[in-house]
Task: inverse folding
């Protein structure tokens, strides 16, 4: 039995999870999610690590593998780092074993990943550096409109006449929103319009990965935005991809950290045999 | 001595595109001369035997703005000849009394011609290498090439280069190669201790320091780094190949490592370990240097392979003898030798089930995010999905 810890440093929050692993049985025993809010992500990673150990009454020496993902390459106490695609794919399979695609939409960018039943990435497509498909953009707009982040989804769901915004560039999209506000467009319609634009982009990313049917799990910071999920379902129908079933999970925000912890457990089991192979290849 | 001051010194040498250390070396004794050489390999023993300092000119890196150099080459030519010209035309290489251009590709051959026209007061020579590995054919040709170089440098030095001078220099470089090989072996065993960007800087110092001093520096680094306790990461062990001429920016080497790859072998500055073992210090020195080149030297895209089955064997040996799990093909944009050879090498690796990935760079590449992403996902694929 081993304990592994996964830390996902995103651009909006640091998520940490602790797992107890016994062969193929993985028990999730603790979690933390801390919004960055102008604090040092590395300090938050250390804080999350310490808190998880305290909660589980464990010591550092009890942790077989600390795996980072996201922007966590420089975490000093990490055993190894995995890339976000890899960890979100594995985390998605843990949360929803039937998932065959992941839409990871966080504060900075979004990506669609086609996966197999083991959590192996088969293909992926990412948004470019343009921020209009990102959570940060949505959060900024909510702030302009005087809406709390938690209200975005429900308000969007109650829209009657959504107004679409530019889906190409965050700057143009913000201009669109300012024009809508001055034209007296309802907040609900603006938010729904933004969701449609984002969902339209995500549906196109999914199409490029080549997946045509099966469950699609939303992960990342925006996974619990019910308005975005509803818009994505509508866009999948509009894009003739109705055989894809988009869904979310209450713990979707932890998918990256979960994947990191589980891959860490896998690597821990392999490391001894690798060390032996290296010693044989490179005599001291 | 600790690692930090050693690396600081190497970093200062690396950053100095005015070659002040070469100027200082020359100023220490009147009449001293320095001769520059480009990648991949020249017999530095001959320069050293003439009492001169061999200086490796590895391009202008990412800190040099190329303005004049761009006027001499088309935009679809790699960057090293343009940045080298820039350094020459802006007086940065005035401290060199000569310049050697080894046979790498047509571009560098043309550069040697340009140098002869532009810098008429300097000793300039194109170093041709054998395409035949029989001692009585390619060997004779190569000995003749080295003899011409020996006489030319002897004239520049104002004294002939004797066989004993050459033997002493061969011994000095044998020792330097041993030290460099020790460093590579140490890194292959403990890549978390000897970080690749540090190893690179230590090796790069050998391009401007006298070999005796560099040998000591390499050994000081190994001793110092071995006393530090550095965290061991679960990184994929990879070989970097294709970077034998135009050098990658230091940020690229750091990015590969940061992305989750330990570089356990590479082909940066191959001149330091081109010859695979000691050159005998007895016998005819040029003949021994020739035999070492023909029969016991490294392989790279700019070196002719006589037999088809020899292609890729050196790379495979690098992989197997260093316990590597994959190969990163990192070649400069527009590098004909590296990019033409790449598909052949990839085919050989695929047959041996060695995973690989490939990208291109220029010595002034600044945007590392795509390289980090690619190297990182490659490391993940090795760690999670390779058959090993």
Result:
């Amino acid at each position: 039995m081993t304990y592994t810890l996964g830390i996902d440093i995103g651009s909006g929050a640091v998520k940490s999870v602790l797992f107890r692993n016994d062969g193929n049985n993985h028990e999730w025993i603790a979690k933390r999610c801390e919004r960055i809010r102008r604090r040092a992500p590395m300090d938050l990673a250390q804080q999350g690590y310490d808190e998880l150990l305290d909660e589980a009454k464990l010591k550092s020496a009890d942790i077989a593998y600390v795996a980072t993902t996201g922007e966590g390459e420089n975490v000093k106490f990490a055993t190894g780092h995995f890339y976000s695609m890899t960890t979100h794919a594995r985390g998605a399979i843990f949360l929803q074993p039937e998932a065959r695609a992941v839409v990871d939409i966080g504060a900075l960018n979004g990506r669609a990943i086609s996966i197999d039943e083991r959590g192996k990435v088969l293909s992926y497509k990412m948004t470019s550096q343009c921020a209009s498909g990102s959570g940060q953009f949505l959060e900024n707009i909510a702030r302009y409109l005087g809406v709390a982040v938690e209200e975005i989804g429900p308000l969007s769901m109650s829209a009657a006449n959504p107004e679409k915004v530019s889906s190409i560039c965050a700057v143009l999209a913000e201009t669109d929103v300012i024009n809508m506000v001055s034209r007296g467009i309802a907040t609900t319609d603006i938010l729904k319009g933004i969701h449609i634009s984002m969902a339209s982009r995500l549906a196109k990313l999914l199409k490029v990965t080549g997946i045509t049917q099966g469950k699609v799990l939303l992960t990342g910071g925006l996974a619990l935005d019910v308005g975005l999920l509803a818009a994505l379902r509508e866009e999948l129908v509009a894009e003739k991809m109705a055989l894809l079933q988009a869904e979310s999970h209450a713990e979707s925000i932890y998918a990256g950290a979960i994947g990191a912890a589980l891959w860490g457990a896998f690597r821990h089991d392999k490391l001894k045999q690798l060390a032996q192979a290296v010693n044989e290849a490179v005599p001291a | 001595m600790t690692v930090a001051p050693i690396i600081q010194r190497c970093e200062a040498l690396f950053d100095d595109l005015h070659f002040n250390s070469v100027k200082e070396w020359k100023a220490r004794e009147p009449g001293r001369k320095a001769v520059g050489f480009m990648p991949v390999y020249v017999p530095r023993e001959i320069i050293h035997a003439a009492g001169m300092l061999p200086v490796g000119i590895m391009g202008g890196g990412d800190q040099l703005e190329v303005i004049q150099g761009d006027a001499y080459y088309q935009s679809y030519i790699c960057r090293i000849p343009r940045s080298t010209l820039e350094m020459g035309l802006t007086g940065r290489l005035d401290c060199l009394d000569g310049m050697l251009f080894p046979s790498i590709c047509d571009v560098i051959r043309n550069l040697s011609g340009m140098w002869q026209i532009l810098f008429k007061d300097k000793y300039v020579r194109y170093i041709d290498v054998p395409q035949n590995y029989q001692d009585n054919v390619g060997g004779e040709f190569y000995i003749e090439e080295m003899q011409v170089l020996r006489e030319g440098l002897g004239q520049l030095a104002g004294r002939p280069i004797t066989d004993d001078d050459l033997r002493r220099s061969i011994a000095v470089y044998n020792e330097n190669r041993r030290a460099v090989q020790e460093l590579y072996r140490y890194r292959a065993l403990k890549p978390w201790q000897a970080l690749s960007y540090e190893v690179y800087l230590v090796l790069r110092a050998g391009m401007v320091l006298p070999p005796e001093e560099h040998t000591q520096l390499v050994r000081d680094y190994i001793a110092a780094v071995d006393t530090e306790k550095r965290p061991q990461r679960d990184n994929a062990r990879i070989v970097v190949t294709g970077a034998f001429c135009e050098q990658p920016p230091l940020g690229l080497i750091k990015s590969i490592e940061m992305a989750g790859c330990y570089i356990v072998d590479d082909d940066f500055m191959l001149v330091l370990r081109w010859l695979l073992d000691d050159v005998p210090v007895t016998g005819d020195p040029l003949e021994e240097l020739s035999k070492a080149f023909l029969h016991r030297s490294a392989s790279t895209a700019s070196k002719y392979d006589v037999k088809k089955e020899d292609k890729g064997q050196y790379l495979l040996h690098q992989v197997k003898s260093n316990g590597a799990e994959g190969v990163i093909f990192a070649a400069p944009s527009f590098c004909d030798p590296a990019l033409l050879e790449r598909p052949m090498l990839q085919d050989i690796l695929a047959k041996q089930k060695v995973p690989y990935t490939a990208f291109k760079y220029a010595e002034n590449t600044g945007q590392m995010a795509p390289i980090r992403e690619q190297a990182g996902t490659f490391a993940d694929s090795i760690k999670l999905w390779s058959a090993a």
Observations:
- Helices of chain A lie at 41-56, 84-95, 135-145, 152-157, 170-182, 187-209, 226-238, 255-281.
- The radius of gyration of chain A is 20 Å.
- The beta strands of chain A are 2-9, 13-22, 25-35, 63-70, 80-81, 99-105, 110-115, 121-126, 214-219, 244-247.
- The mean pLDDT of chain A is 90.
